[in-house]
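Subject: sequence -> structure tokens, single chain

Hey, anyone have a minute? Need the predicted structure for the following. Not urgent.
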Amino acid sequence: MNEKLSRLAERRERLVAQAAAQRTVLSQNIEAWRVPLVLADQGLAALRYVKSHPVLTMGGVALFVVLRPRHIGEWLRRGLVTWQIMNKIRGRRQE
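Reply:
Had a minute. Here:
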């Protein structure tokens, strides 16, 4: 019985070491995909937000139509800055 337990213990040690090595290799392989996956996730989150708030989207479009902005680049920049600030605020709340 002791011999069987020692063989099981040795096998377990080998398997644990093998799993650790596989985790290391996997984490190294996944690292290259981290930034593209984060960007894709942010894009999907933005699409979900727009989809779940159609009134805000239509309001924004209507605002641009009514104002007929001459400086659309400036308005877009302001909107981007506002959006980034809101994301930072939301990120701090979740942490």
